[in-house]
Design goal:
about 140 residues; five-stranded mixed sheet; two-stranded antiparallel ribbon; about 30% helix; elongated
Protein backbone atom coordinates (compact mmCIF):
# COMPACT_ATOMS: atom_id res chain seq x y z
CA UNK A 1 0.00 0.00 0.00
CA UNK A 2 1.39 3.38 -0.87
CA UNK A 3 0.63 6.58 0.93
CA UNK A 4 0.90 9.93 -0.76
CA UNK A 5 -0.02 13.49 0.10
CA UNK A 6 -2.99 14.82 -1.80
CA UNK A 7 -3.53 18.36 -3.09
CA UNK A 8 -4.99 19.61 0.17
CA UNK A 9 -2.26 18.10 2.28
CA UNK A 10 -4.27 15.04 3.48
CA UNK A 11 -3.06 11.51 3.15
CA UNK A 12 -4.56 9.15 0.54
CA UNK A 13 -3.86 5.46 0.27
CA UNK A 14 -3.79 3.26 -2.82
CA UNK A 15 -3.62 -0.51 -2.89
CA UNK A 16 -0.71 -1.99 -4.78
CA UNK A 17 -2.28 -4.75 -6.92
CA UNK A 18 0.92 -6.57 -7.92
CA UNK A 19 1.37 -8.63 -4.71
CA UNK A 20 -2.33 -9.53 -4.67
CA UNK A 21 -2.17 -10.81 -8.24
CA UNK A 22 0.97 -12.83 -7.41
CA UNK A 23 -0.78 -14.47 -4.45
CA UNK A 24 -3.86 -15.17 -6.61
CA UNK A 25 -1.77 -16.87 -9.30
CA UNK A 26 0.06 -19.02 -6.74
CA UNK A 27 -3.25 -20.13 -5.22
CA UNK A 28 -4.64 -20.89 -8.68
CA UNK A 29 -1.65 -23.11 -9.49
CA UNK A 30 -1.93 -24.90 -6.14
CA UNK A 31 -5.60 -25.69 -6.68
CA UNK A 32 -4.97 -26.84 -10.25
CA UNK A 33 -2.42 -29.35 -8.94
CA UNK A 34 -4.52 -30.56 -5.97
CA UNK A 35 -7.90 -31.10 -7.68
CA UNK A 36 -6.90 -34.05 -9.92
CA UNK A 37 -5.39 -35.84 -6.89
CA UNK A 38 -8.61 -35.72 -4.84
CA UNK A 39 -10.43 -39.04 -4.42
CA UNK A 40 -13.52 -39.41 -6.57
CA UNK A 41 -15.50 -42.04 -4.62
CA UNK A 42 -16.10 -45.77 -4.48
CA UNK A 43 -14.84 -47.67 -7.48
CA UNK A 44 -17.05 -50.52 -8.59
CA UNK A 45 -16.63 -53.43 -10.95
CA UNK A 46 -19.48 -54.22 -13.29
CA UNK A 47 -19.79 -57.90 -14.20
CA UNK A 48 -19.55 -58.64 -17.91
CA UNK A 49 -21.17 -61.67 -19.52
CA UNK A 50 -18.66 -64.18 -20.85
CA UNK A 51 -20.42 -65.28 -24.06
CA UNK A 52 -23.56 -63.21 -23.89
CA UNK A 53 -25.49 -66.22 -22.50
CA UNK A 54 -24.12 -66.36 -19.00
CA UNK A 55 -24.68 -63.28 -16.84
CA UNK A 56 -22.49 -64.29 -13.90
CA UNK A 57 -19.49 -66.55 -13.37
CA UNK A 58 -20.14 -70.03 -11.99
CA UNK A 59 -18.37 -69.43 -8.68
CA UNK A 60 -19.62 -65.88 -8.25
CA UNK A 61 -21.29 -64.81 -5.05
CA UNK A 62 -24.39 -62.69 -5.63
CA UNK A 63 -25.85 -60.74 -2.74
CA UNK A 64 -29.39 -59.63 -3.43
CA UNK A 65 -30.75 -56.73 -1.41
CA UNK A 66 -34.55 -56.80 -1.63
CA UNK A 67 -37.25 -54.60 -0.21
CA UNK A 68 -38.93 -56.24 2.76
CA UNK A 69 -41.67 -55.09 5.09
CA UNK A 70 -41.69 -51.31 5.46
CA UNK A 71 -38.33 -49.75 4.68
CA UNK A 72 -36.40 -52.80 5.88
CA UNK A 73 -34.13 -54.65 3.48
CA UNK A 74 -33.95 -58.42 3.20
CA UNK A 75 -30.86 -60.23 1.99
CA UNK A 76 -30.16 -63.36 -0.06
CA UNK A 77 -26.72 -64.78 -0.76
CA UNK A 78 -26.86 -67.02 -3.84
CA UNK A 79 -30.64 -67.47 -3.40
CA UNK A 80 -30.32 -68.38 0.31
CA UNK A 81 -32.08 -65.99 2.70
CA UNK A 82 -30.02 -64.43 5.46
CA UNK A 83 -30.66 -61.80 8.10
CA UNK A 84 -28.88 -58.47 8.55
CA UNK A 85 -27.30 -59.68 11.80
CA UNK A 86 -25.67 -62.77 10.29
CA UNK A 87 -24.65 -61.12 7.00
CA UNK A 88 -21.05 -60.20 8.05
CA UNK A 89 -20.42 -63.68 9.46
CA UNK A 90 -21.76 -65.43 6.34
CA UNK A 91 -19.72 -63.23 4.00
CA UNK A 92 -16.62 -63.75 6.16
CA UNK A 93 -17.08 -67.52 6.02
CA UNK A 94 -17.58 -67.50 2.24
CA UNK A 95 -14.50 -65.39 1.52
CA UNK A 96 -12.20 -66.90 4.17
CA UNK A 97 -10.48 -69.31 1.74
CA UNK A 98 -10.98 -67.58 -1.59
CA UNK A 99 -8.16 -66.02 -3.55
CA UNK A 100 -10.50 -63.95 -5.73
CA UNK A 101 -12.71 -61.91 -3.42
CA UNK A 102 -15.34 -60.44 -5.71
CA UNK A 103 -18.96 -59.92 -4.66
CA UNK A 104 -21.80 -58.96 -6.98
CA UNK A 105 -24.55 -56.87 -5.40
CA UNK A 106 -27.99 -56.86 -6.97
CA UNK A 107 -30.18 -54.20 -5.37
CA UNK A 108 -33.91 -53.65 -5.56
CA UNK A 109 -34.77 -50.42 -7.36
CA UNK A 110 -37.24 -49.48 -4.60
CA UNK A 111 -34.45 -49.19 -1.99
CA UNK A 112 -32.38 -46.10 -1.40
CA UNK A 113 -28.73 -46.19 -2.38
CA UNK A 114 -27.70 -45.62 1.23
CA UNK A 115 -29.01 -49.12 2.05
CA UNK A 116 -26.96 -50.57 -0.83
CA UNK A 117 -23.90 -48.57 0.27
CA UNK A 118 -24.29 -49.99 3.78
CA UNK A 119 -24.18 -53.51 2.32
CA UNK A 120 -21.03 -52.59 0.38
CA UNK A 121 -19.41 -51.35 3.61
CA UNK A 122 -20.38 -54.58 5.40
CA UNK A 123 -18.88 -56.66 2.59
CA UNK A 124 -15.60 -54.70 2.68
CA UNK A 125 -15.44 -55.28 6.44
CA UNK A 126 -16.00 -59.02 5.83
CA UNK A 127 -12.95 -59.24 3.55
CA UNK A 128 -14.36 -58.60 0.05
CA UNK A 129 -11.84 -56.81 -2.18
CA UNK A 130 -14.03 -55.87 -5.16
CA UNK A 131 -17.77 -55.20 -5.33
CA UNK A 132 -19.64 -55.30 -8.63
CA UNK A 133 -23.06 -53.74 -8.98
CA UNK A 134 -25.53 -55.70 -11.07
CA UNK A 135 -27.83 -53.37 -12.96
CA UNK A 136 -30.82 -54.32 -15.14
CA UNK A 137 -28.79 -53.43 -18.24
CA UNK A 138 -26.00 -55.83 -17.24
CA UNK A 139 -28.50 -58.58 -16.47
CA UNK A 140 -29.97 -58.23 -19.98
CA UNK A 141 -26.46 -58.71 -21.40
CA UNK A 142 -25.99 -55.27 -22.92
Amino acid sequence: MTISKGIEGGLTSEINMTPMIDVLLVLLIIFMVIVPAMPRGESALVPRPANGHETQPSEAVVLEVLKGAGDEATFRINQQATSRAELPARLGAIYANRARRVLYVKGDDQLSFSQIAEVIDISHAAGVDHVGLMTPKVLRGL
